[in-house]
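Box 3.1 A note on notation
Throughout this textbook, protein chains are presented in two layers. The first layer is the amino acid sequence; the second is a token string describing backbone geometry. Keep the layers aligned when reading.
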Amino acid sequence: MRPHLELLLNNFADKGIYISAYKFRRARTILDQLKLGGLKANAAKIVDPVDGVVTSSGRMDFLAKDIENIDMLEANLQELKTKDGNFRPVLRRLIEAYCETNQPDKALEYKVEWDNSGYEPAAGILSRLIGVCSANNNQQEALKLRNELKAKFPEFKMDMLKYCQLIHGAVKENKIDVALNLVDDIKECGTSTDNVERRVFFLLQNLTEEGYIEEAKQLTRKFIDCNIVNSNNNILRPVVTALMDKRDMEGALSWIQECQAKYGFMPSFHDILVRLINEGDKDMLQKAMEFSSSHHGDINMLYDMTFAFLTTSKFDEAKKIIDTPGMIARAGRLQWYSEKCLVDQMQEQMEKLVEITKDLYNCNRDNLYFSLLQLYARKEDPNKCLQIWTNMQEEEVIPSDRTLRYLANVLKSHDQPIPYEVPQIMDMSPQSGITDINGDDSNIVKLCLEGNIDQALQLINDAKENKTSLKYKTLDTVILSALKLGDVDTALKVRDIIKEFGLTVNKLTNSAIFFHYIETDNLPAAENIFEDFIAKGIQPTVRMTRALALKYEQTGNMDKINNMIDQLGDSHDEQYQLYKYVLGALLYRNELDTAFTKIKEKLSETQNGDKVGLRSFFSKMIQNELPLDKG
């Protein structure tokens, strides 16, 4: 078979008989199936040059051809007609050239001549004609050509740009049914491009900007229902943006509600809230809040409002929401707004977010500080970057290795000293070939990274027996790693070893152990650490103090709370604000009369409701459905 096929292909090439790129692709596939791949080079010689150049690898290069001189082609065509020759290749080149030079009328004229001459249709030419007709608002001819292409080449995949041009043209001519049918066409035939979502987004954006909002809604639903694009905020956003530009906030919110109900997305909801706050539209804002609360919960609604207030620089309102009783950290929501601050370079908003979430329960402070650090670094402000390190120490936030390394790189790039030991990244795989870099310290840190705390403790005990010194940072790493794994016994053993080495356990490490006890409800152990701080004259952190007081409140232990107030002295009012826990404990014991009496006494001393804890007190009464008319 091979010799005959090779001879046939060479004869075609000698006689100037061409095939389209579309047929070449099919022939190439068949040759591969017949295990005759070596003949693809022979087949490439008979590909019509108008469709492109075939590379040595057998692939089509559609960018290799040049736009030919039209006058020369016209003259060549007339000469071939006079000689009664085969002018098909020249005719194809002329149609191609007129498409390239955006002359649809001339291109269509030669298309008619092509048909009248009885030449075989070419998918590439039809596709190009569709593109040039759509670009020049000749919608009727473009659709006619699309129907011809589909009928004659049902397997041909037209690129998405041409589909979008056809759909756009149909909408502009008020033929929404035609546009929707074209979407079905895409689903049935497929498309040759891989940037489908990008094309669809710009189609919807252009339509909404031109005022075709209702049509864009129908097309959005259709594209998603046909699985041509996945539902996401980006695809759903153009309609919201257009409605907001028209100041149709009710229509925008209605579309968001539909998107949430059908697809689980709320496109540009933050932007809606920001606009409503700026415009002071309280009624619509209330509707938006109710919608948010009903669909993804009160906590998420409060985050929506917090971020909107931050963006509009209404920081006091944002803080009031974060201070709402029962508010807890939602890592995903905080990360979203942190990234938005980074992208939009909203420095003040990011700073305020870090500030108002200081006492937010279960908040990953390191993540927030890291985002702020990135923002300062992008603005090339090493002094503010270094201030973050200071703030984290004052707040007793344990920085992650990621934060420490990032800050170190920033300081180093600005020739600033690094005030701490930079943690190293180590490859723990057997193939890495890592040896004992820094003796026992290095091996212990490696074991911690692997999660092998028992073996790390064994090396520490060996070092202790051999009277080998270890760095405090190494021992501290073991404690923190053990706590992450819930192994408090090992953490305490290493803490005792630190003391035996003559070192002092720092406040951060003791705080980490304290919070582990709080989380595991081991109050006696947590109390021991707290009492040890007081005895040594070390001021407990606000987080430690409030966490312990909350535990006492939840059991109604008035004696313990009053003892803490006595130990902390006058600072309990200004810094720790423990009085709200006293009231909370009274509520737990159902001693409402006593609680109201204490409130009156306290208000006679100060008019500051925050010091008394009124907001927290009344919120808890409402939550527990207690009467508000006491006293």
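The two ends are 105 Å apart (CA to CA). The beta strands are 53-54, 60-61.
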